[in-house]
Write a structure and sequence with these properties.
The structure holds two protein chains of two kinds. Helix content of chain A is 25%, strand content 27%. Chain A is built from nine helices and 16 strands. Chain A has a six-stranded antiparallel barrel. In chain A, strands 8-13-12-9-10-11 form a six-stranded mixed sheet, with helices on both faces. In chain A, strands 1-16 form a two-stranded antiparallel sheet. In chain A, β14 and β15 (305-307) form a beta hairpin. In chain A, α8 packs parallel to α9. In chain B, β14 and β15 form a beta hairpin. Chain B is globular, with a radius of gyration of 20 Å. The relative contact order of chain B is 0.19. The chains are: A alpha+beta, B alpha+beta. The A-B interface holds A 2-6, 30-32, 37-43, 45-47, 49-50, 53 and B 115, 117, 132-135, 150-154, 156-157, 161-162, 169-170, 173-174, 176, 180, 186, 188, 196, 301-302.
Chain lengths: 321, 426
């Protein structure tokens, strides 16, 4: 598998492209839709300018419909710990379908709260045609309200860019993958492992309980993932990761957890001169998810500003803070 | 590691690769699509008017292998059509494998489906080209022969949209300019009214879609001129054509067809239902571009600033050929400029001064004159070709237009340049 990851907008080729950024001449991808004279895009098989003009020519709205908000019933709400809450929601079938890929997430808020209470939450799994499972950690003003005992919540989605390097996860078959996940990194790790094992990859996972306890180990085991559980990544897990990393010819490394964990993983790889493709959860603060607000913008080592809610990027290319 | 990396496998790129290989360098040729020759896959016309002189000069200069390849696959030689004398038409179906074979005999490392998307710079020097899949191709000297056509967003903005032409951008990715990726600001060609770009000047029809008598006439004579019904004549259609040598009234009043393997229709685009009102074309359909009823590709959207040795100004190790060198038209023009670019890339590699073609030769005057013209907006609103319009007029005026081989050989000899492109430098 190529080590190279093409930086591109995750929404290209979806029902949500061209988006409102394109109609405002701020497309993250198309040079012409940034107001430049001449084409200079990082080609992904589709011409966004074409789509945009074609829509306009046919008297359609210039930007395709944006994701709208919907009220969803809460089927189950279960506190795993005092602060960690597992919520099962009933969603329309079309929404559930679009949330199956690793890295999918939605914005949720209490139905009585204003829109700016939305928080982005990754999908842990889709059950059947209609149900999604998410895990929320009640730590801030928004998440504390979300876990309240309501019959419904407001949901906006689907969003896709929850994992940097997801093209690697999508492409790899018959490979060997080393996955590391701790605490709240476990829920997004589940769809990743599911996708990888479905494509005949052998996955070894180092899972740490963190503040949440082990919440995905049984399901990972059922998928055939080789699991190593540790109490603490800091004390044991990273050492274990480093020795496993050196032992085998891996094809892909996946880190699900906080940015500090990603940094440790990158350092461990650099220490032994290993330059594998690395997928990692996108932990950046997001408010709108549409590339508008700029709260998730990060700088790359090449001094490009990346709107991480939409743009796939090699995490090792992002400037460390 | 190849010492010379040529990016873009059209006529200019093939010529650059052949010239660099003949000079003794290790050459890699990177082509975005799965076929060499680019727009040359749907062209075919050469040796018409001043192109005859240029072709003969190039042969005497020792850089004529590709011209001879065209000669060998010609379907028709020494034919005449409105405004054009002693033209040859190579077979667009047979030429590509023949050229590929020639490149193989020269041990040129041809990489197809290899789209260059970026370059790595060290100061003002290109150290490597990056392919779309991330592969890094290192080299000493680079040649940009990526052309100026398309991609589809440009054809949409400045033309009638993607007409699905031989460049096949949706399948192989867009044209990417190495010059631009090296940080050099490029110029845009315009039409005389200031509109950016110019539309490719001809289409290909499927030969089997012609009436039997018309097909027979074409195969025997190479050319057919069919007067257009009065209601289909549109005289103002000529101004936007890239191929100025065919922007003549005869081309607005007639349908002019040439047999190049396919049937070359000397019009930028022609709505199918109107085309089918022309006698003999009742069942006509397009071969290239597929939407030839709607439009054609847009050109001259990436002109590199260059000197007369074809070195790109502002980059230490980059040369350019073909349309990158100016608003030029034609295979012969591409082969001439490509040959000089490839040859000079090798000279730079071994520390020799680059070659300047003297203006006493048509090929030298062409490169110098076009270079001069590219510096001013009005110059960029004109297209240049040995085959017609203003540059052919200049050739005649300066006495550069000759068709006697002996006379041309003597002229090259007088410049002490006979066989210069064939000499091994390392």
């Amino acid at each position: 598998m190529s080590r190279y990851l093409q930086s591109k907008c995750i929404d290209i080729n979806s029902a949500y492209c061209p988006c409102i950024l394109a109609s405002a001449n701020h497309c993250v991808f198309c040079a012409q839709l940034q107001g430049k004279d001449i084409c200079d895009c990082n080609w992904s098989g589709i011409c966004i300018l074409y789509e945009q003009k074609w829509n306009a020519r046919n008297d359609l709205v210039t930007a395709k419909p944006q994701r709208t908000e919907m009220e969803c019933s809460v089927i189950d709400r279960h506190f795993i710990t005092e602060k960690i809450c597992r919520i099962v929601l009933d969603v329309p079938r079309a929404m559930a379908e679009q949330l199956r890929d690793p890295g999918s997430f939605v914005f949720l808020r209490r139905n009585v709260d204003p829109q700016y209470y939305h928080i982005p939450i990754g999908i842990m799994k889709v059950i059947g045609d209609h149900q999604i499972v998410v895990v929320a950690e009640a730590v801030g003003i928004k998440s504390l309200r979300l876990v309240e005992e309501d019959q419904t919540v407001m949901l906006r989605g689907p969003y896709k860019n929850g994992i940097f390097g997801s093209p690697w996860i999508d492409k790899l078959t018959n490979g060997k993958v080393l996955l590391i996940a701790g605490g709240m990194g476990q829920p997004p790790a589940l769809p990743v492992a599911e996708k990888l094992t479905r494509n005949y990859n052998k996955v070894t996972a180092i899972i740490s309980a963190g503040t949440t306890g082990f919440i995905v180990t049984q399901e990972l085991q059922d998928m055939g993932v080789n699991i190593v559980t540790v109490d603490s990544l800091r004390r044991v897990g990273y050492h274990h990761f480093a020795s496993l990393l050196a032992e085998t010819d891996w094809d892909l490394v996946v880190s699900c957890g906080p940015d500090a964990q990603h940094s440790k993983v990158i350092d461990a790889m650099r220490n032994i001169g290993c330059d594998l493709p690395m997928a990692a959860t996108n932990n950046n603060v997001m408010c709108c998810g549409e590339g508008i607000c700029g709260s998730c913008t990060k700088e790359t080592n090449q001094h490009q500003q990346i709107r991480t809610c939409k743009v796939q990027v090699d995490i090792t290319d992002l400037k460390r803070e | 590691m190849a010492s010379i990396v040529v990016v873009g496998g059209g006529w200019a790129g093939c010529a650059a690769a052949v010239a660099a290989a003949n000079a003794g360098a290790q050459v890699m040729l990177l082509e975005r699509t799965d076929l060499l020759l680019g727009a040359g896959l749907v062209g075919g016309i050469f040796r018409n008017n001043g192109r005859y002189t240029a072709a003969e000069e190039l042969i005497v200069l020792g850089g004529g292998e590709l011209i001879q390849q065209m000669d060998q696959t010609a379907r028709h030689q020494d034919i005449e059509f409105p405004g054009h004398k002693h033209a040859s038409l190579y077979d667009v179906v047979r030429i590509e494998p023949a050229v590929r074979q020639l490149l193989a005999t020269k041990s040129i490392d041809v990489r197809l489906s290899s789209s260059v998307v970026d370059v790595v710079m060290a100061g003002k020097t290109i150290t490597a080209a990056i392919l779309a899949d991330g592969t890094v191709i290192r080299g000493d000297v680079f040649v940009d022969t990526t052309g100026t056509f398309g991609p589809m967003g440009n054809c949409l903005k400045y033309g009638n949209g993607c007409a699905m032409c031989i460049l096949r951008c949706p399948s192989f990715g867009p044209r990417v300019s190495i010059t631009s990726k090296a940080g050099i600001k490029e110029e845009l060609g315009t039409t005389t009214d200031g509109t950016i770009g110019a539309m490719s000047g001809s289409c290909k029809l499927n030969k089997d879609s012609l009436s039997n008598p018309l097909r027979k006439q074409l195969e025997e004579q190479g050319v057919a001129v069919i007067p257009l019904p009065a209601h289909l004549i549109k005289k103002n259609s000529l101004a936007h054509k890239a191929c100025v040598q065919y922007a003549l009234e005869a081309y607005a009043e007639n349908v002019i067809l040439l047999d190049t393997g396919h049937v070359k229709l000397m019009t930028s685009y022609f709505p199918v239902e109107k085309l089918r009102q022309v006698p003999g074309l009742e069942a006509a359909r397009f071969e290239d571009p597929y939407a030839g009823g709607v439009g054609n590709s847009m050109r001259y959207l990436a002109l590199a600033p260059r000197d007369n040795t074809l070195k790109v100004q502002g980059v230490d190790n980059l040369y350019c050929g073909g349309e990158k060198t100016g608003t030029i038209v034609g295979h012969t023009e591409a082969v001439v400029t490509g040959t000089l670019a490839g040859h000079n890339a090798v000279r730079q590699k071994i520390g020799l001064d680059p070659l300047l073609l003297p203006t006493a030769l048509a090929v030298g005057d062409f490169i110098a004159y076009v270079g001069q013209q590219m510096k001013v907006p009005v110059g960029r609103s004109i297209r240049y070709t040995f085959a017609g319009a203003s540059y052919f007029a200049r050739m005649k005026e300066l006495g550069l237009y000759k068709t006697e081989h002996g006379e041309i050989a003597e002229r090259v000899h007088a410049q002490n340049m006979t066989g210069i492109f064939a000499a091994r430098l390392l």
